[in-house]
Amino acid sequence: MNRLRPFRFGVICEQMQSAEEWIMKAQQAEDYGYATFLIRDHFIREAFGDQLAPMIALMAAASVTGTLRVGSLVLDNDYRHPVMLAKEAATLDLLSNGRFELGIGAGWLRSEYEQAGLAFESAGVRVSRLEEGIHVLKGLFADKPLSFAGNYYTVTNLSGFPKPVQRPHPPILVGAGSKRMLALAGREADIVGILPKALPEGAISEEITERLPETIAQKVEWVRQAAGERFDELELSMMITPIFSERRRERAEQVARERGWSGIAVEDVLEMPSIFIGTPDQMVEDLLRRREQYGFSYYVVSDANMEAFAPVVASIAGEERW
């Protein structure tokens, strides 16, 4: 790893029931020192509960905060034509004074497509369409009119308006778990959100191997190979589960039992890059070590863990001031 990026921490808000609660959580995230306030993109309850409409909700969060960045984690490319998404994203960036981060992916939840009457095409088609969609988005964020003729999108001499405050465009995060998606993210994204791979049947893999250190290291390497010389410019991100305990090994054993990970060693659970078990001080140590080991510097926690994880965020901020 040639260059260690400063840490950033985000909150993905999954437990909202009202406008008052949404606004309160955005303001709390800012007060606790989190850098970003994020939302998913789903319109059925499976698998993360009911979700607000992302772009509107993010604008509301931006309007009641001053420095907090807002973002999608992640928008499904198939749910919005990139021409419309470019306008919405640029508008949100403009009205938030340059605080928007555009997370996007190829979609994976088959049941959501089916309930909405959308065709759930093969992963290859969805990834190819995402690649074209990102091309259209970047083109419309740019200064010149865009003409593009692909297999999925055609745009003719179209100028995007408004232009985003952030140039050349708001940071683009691509969520990725497979080799092809990670390569796409390495080539096109500013932020790479590394995930377990999506399965052809329309679910996220629950395989234990998807969470082990050697698998995560391989995924980072796929990003590095695709990114080439721009790898050091990328920010690597991961959603994490913090589990606070003064008895790390016992708690790790309990986690393995609860999740049905039979036959896995305690050490393997403790070394999983997406799980942090221990005291706040131990978590700080693990964050620093894993940044050195893998390059991850941008971590996201659920709003259910926002308050408990805040001392870790503050401790890391203190470490980096020194």
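That was protein one. Protein two is written in the same sequence-then-structure order:
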Amino acid sequence: MNAGGTYRSDQGPALLAHLWQSLRRPEYWAYSSWLEITTKYRRTSLGLLWLALPVALFVLVLGNVYSHLMSYPLERYLPYLAVGYVTWRFMIQVVTDVAGALPSHKANIMEGRIRLTDFILVSFSKAFFHLFFGGAVVVAVLMWSPETHLGHLWTLLLSFPLLLLNLGWIAVCIALIGARFRDTQELIGAVLMLGFLLTPILWQVDRFPPDTLRGSLVRFNPAFHLLEVVRAPLLGGHPETASILVVCLLAAAGWALTILLYRRYARYVPLWV
């Protein structure tokens, strides 16, 4: 695919060039995601409030239940749950949606005039709309809780881009795999259901210190570190140094691998879809 979006047979397309071109020209993916969301909720009574209502119900209901079951103070547990759940929800929406992004745009791909990264960014854009409304719930919970301390909030300006960098390469890899293997979306859904239980979202990680066996197993989970770099600043703390290192290493290694995979296999996507 050249700069205009058409495929070339002599070499594979360059991922970073395509991504940069897509970000510079957001007309297709930004409008497509907005149109899909507004069309889905246009005839509902609450409209776009449905993007926030499920999050609010989840946090309020499960927050009250689990805070009593695990003897956590509600004013501390509710912000922990809200930030963790909204961040996790953003991550899984990107991952699950992008798994079917390329096959669902088969007609446009066959025309060869739109970059593959545009279709991947559609999934990102839709997830950002959900994150915006879910973030409103997080803000409300943080304002309600007397335990809220935002002294380290500025570190989120550094840590959130790290999350996006990792989601970026993961999304590209999954999009390519999803184009080749149609079971990818179902498999990811099953894995993420288990991942939700194994990742400290409903339960607090401070029950498992890093120097214990269980604490080491928890920190072996990459999703924990991706959550931690975002959640800790919003809860008034610093992310663990190990989490920052893991997230940085994941981003560097992941993008290096993804650039090679995209150059090698992106040209075959029209055949796969």
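DSSP finds 13 helices and no strands in the chain. Keep this in mind for the problem set.
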